[in-house]
Amino acid sequence: MILVSFVRDCVQQLFMGGRYYWSWIFGLNFFILIGLINYFRQYNTGLILTGMSDQVSWGFYVSNFTYLVGIAAAAVMLVIPAYIFNRPEAKKVVLLGEGLAVAASLMCILFVTVDMGRPDRLWHMLPFIGRFNWPMSLLTWDVIVLSGYLLLNLFMPLYILFHEYSEKDSNKKFIFIAAVVSMFWAISIHTVTAFLFASNPARPFWHSALLAPKFLASAFTAGPAFIILAFRVIDRSDAYRIGHKAIDLLAAIVAIAMQVNLLMLVSELFTEFYSEGTHSASARYLFFGLHGFNSLVPWIYTSILMNIVAAVILMVEKWRRNNTLLSIACVLAMVGVWIEKGMGFVIPGFIPTPIGEVFEYGPTWTEIFISLGIWCAGLLVFTILVKAAIPIQRGRLRYRPE
Amino acid sequence: MKKQKENQLKIKIKNRPDFSRRTALKALGTGVAAVGAVTAGRAGFGKTEVPAEYGLMDQFGEFFQQHYKKMSKEEISGVIERIERKYKAKYDLDVKVGDTPPFPGVVFGYALNINKCKGYRECVRGCVEENNQSRDPQIQYIRVLELDRGSLNLEKSEHYYDDQTDVPKDGKMYLPIQCHQCDNPPCVKACPVEATWKEPDGVVVVDYNWCIGCRMCANACPYWARRFNWSEPVIPKDEINPETHYLSNRPREKGVMEKCTFCIQRTRKGELPACHQACPTGARVFGNLLDVNSEIRYVLENKDIFRLKEELNTEPKFWYYTD
Fold first, then answer.
1. According to the model, what pLDDT value does residue B49 have?
2. Chain A residues within 8 A of B45 when measuring between CB atoms
3. How close B293 comes to chain A (CA, Å)?
4. Deepest of A221, B32, B277, B299, by most Cβ within 10 A of its Cβ?
């Protein structure tokens, strides 16, 4: 019976909100609708409505997927201090981080689904019913780790919230074990996603041992940056005092991860260009252009510039503690890494093709609208989770037997 | 005029419509219109272009069709009958879908004489006609590269040279690339649903009714040999080749991957692949690698041969050689 009233009370929370809350919800739903409509068209006409081609067979969708896997993994940066080191400031906000992981994992699954030629045949991937090419195919690994991560991050907060709600003691040992599992799992989701690319010797730009660590470094930049921004919004809406301690912790993480990320960029540039061979063609295309084609060049320099400025702001403690500067740095880091992983990584891996053709890619409006719709769906899920979790965490919402 | 048009398969550079700000507005506009249509119940999700002759039971059967290798002989012939019904409904044509198994003791191999290839692209045209590739957007399994003589750097190759006026050009060599039917195929490893595999005769095939269209295989291929159906393929009715094989040249649908199969619909009956037959210069040698007396074995043992990207250990069964 407690469970029923738990669900009912949580759902009730979703309908309580001011003007800003409802405009936010309606705005999100509007773009979700636009995305859905564009997906209808894509489903009926085919992926020809996208900018993808046989030459560049993955595009905007997989770029966003790759980025969001990192965002999902970043939740672990709150899970570790909260559950393993028992830091109170992290404990206070860890559920929000896990909510973000849930939303990001869902977006990842949606982005992969809209990228499929035959989404009606998704059941072919189900183990036992279909033919699941595990362990050979890296995509099957991604399916396992992503869905596992989603469930882990859904059940851990639910378990804690439910116990707080019913004012019972939760099993600390169980939470600790779940946290340890979740820690390794977070690393695994981004490592597996990196291997998805690095497993292709046909694409020298992706075929790098640096890829998994670089993915992790950029994930621990963009993810906590997003969490900081979300915290600042929640803080301002006065629903829940996050306090500066949790934000300081995250800002330090972003600062370190960004420096590691930039170091890896330097290492990559050196290896590609000191003794430039034919395998460096994609890197040359990305940074300087190839045979007169150079549409990605402005993207990558924008990204590097954003990352450097963010790193500089975050490295100076005085600046990092300034709320406005911190927000600017977080936005720069988020966008910088987003470009770095999409237009700066997924796309140039295809150019030139393995048999030497330079064929460029740019997203079409269909892709942009569908992607926007998925982002809004993710934000909606995040909003719903936060909206239900905060009153329980603050102690406002408790089980009241009738 | 029409004849010339048929013979002249122009290589398209862009196989997608150009997008501009206007189309963005259109995307939004049609979106709003579609809302109206959906709410009015006139348009549905996943509408099908297949006429009513292909009934609900058939569509049901298609959805739940099992993986090719999991089906019994009877189930496969049932599936083939249903697919033939679908082609009848779709193209108003009797397309015969065969299921010839591989010959025992046969592994196919291909060799191509780069001294003889003059870049006419007749192999490309022969392949498209034989294998029912989409004409709009154009799908071609064979890419012929024009290279400066003296360099095998593919990155410096010309993919869109004109084959109607000035081939062979002085100082150039021509290098046709198609699926190399690797003995250690990276595409097979990459497929998450085992929709593509290596047959006992060494040919890598795709079950078009099992492929989910994720394009992992296309990313994995070092020879750029895989083609995706970005939209519903279009083939004029009078150009459809009705002699087909389930795992090879039967007409495909949108959203699935396809590739060269060394024409198993022909070669498993003892005929030569269409590209071999179309080649006007005799540059191609095809045969059974296990037959010590075959022409291909003679070439492999007596000529200077090489394979592309041998360092990747994919073990292609496609060789290039010189006189």
1. 56
2. 40, 43
3. 33
4. A221
Q: What is the ipTM of this complex?
A: 0.93
Do residues A123 and A129 touch, judged by C-beta distance below 8 A? yes
Chain A positions touching B15 (Cβ under 8 A) are 48, 53-54
List alpha helices for chain B, DSSP H: 2-7, 21-39, 56-63, 73-91, 122-130, 186-190, 216-220, 264-267, 274-278, 295-302
| A31-64 pLDDT tens trace | 999 999 999 999 999 999 999 999 999 999 999 9
* Closest by CA position to B179, among listed B202, B163, B208, B162: B202
Helix and strand numbers, DSSP H then E, in chain B: 10, 12
**d(Cα A402, Cα A388) in Å, to the nearest integer?**
21
Q: Which residues of B251-276 are buried (b: 16+ CB within 10 A; e: fewer)?
A: bbbbbbbbbbbbbbbbbbeeebbbbb
Confidence of residue A239 (pLDDT cuts 50, 70, 90): low
Average pLDDT on A278-304 reads 96
Q: What is the largest CA-CA distance in chain B?
A: 71
Which residue in chain B is spatially nearest to A355 when comparing CA positions? B154
CA distance A317 to A19: 37
Residue B39 predicted with pLDDT over 70 = no
> Which residues does B282 contact at the CB level (< 8 Å), separation at least 6?
B113, B116
Contact B222 A354 (CB under 8 A): yes
- The structure tokens listed for A6 are 């738990």
- Rounded-to-integer distance, Cα B253 and Cα B275, Å: 23
A149 to each of A54, A112, A189, how far by Cα in Å?
Answer: 32, 16, 8
Opening angle at CA B13, ends B9 and B14, nearest 5:
115
Note the pLDDT tens digit of each residue in A328-350: 999 999 999 999 999 999 999 99
pLDDT tens string B272-311:
999 999 999 999 999 999 999 999 999 999 999 999 999 9
Query: Does the pLDDT value for residue A69 go beyond 90?
Result: yes
Read off the pLDDT of each residue in B231-253 and give the average, rounded to a whole number.
Answer: 96
The DSSP call for residue A351 is: S
What is the rounded CA–CA span in Å between residue A377 and residue A396?
Answer: 27
CA B276 to chain centre: 15
Does the beta carbon of A199 lie under 8 angstroms from any beta carbon of chain B?
yes
Q: What is the mean pLDDT of chain A?
A: 93
Distance separating alpha carbons of residues B293 and B286, to the nearest angstrom: 13
Tell the residue number behind the tokens 């596992």, with chain if given.
Answer: A148
pLDDT at B50: 56
Beta-bridge partner residues of B228: B257
Report the alpha-carbon distance of residue B217 to residue A252 in Å, rounded: 41
Q: Which CATH number is B114-281's, of 3.20.20.300, 1.25.40.890, 3.30.70.20, 3.50.50.60? A: 3.30.70.20
Q: Is residue B45 pLDDT above 60, yes or no?
A: no
Residue A240 CB neighbours (<10 A): 18
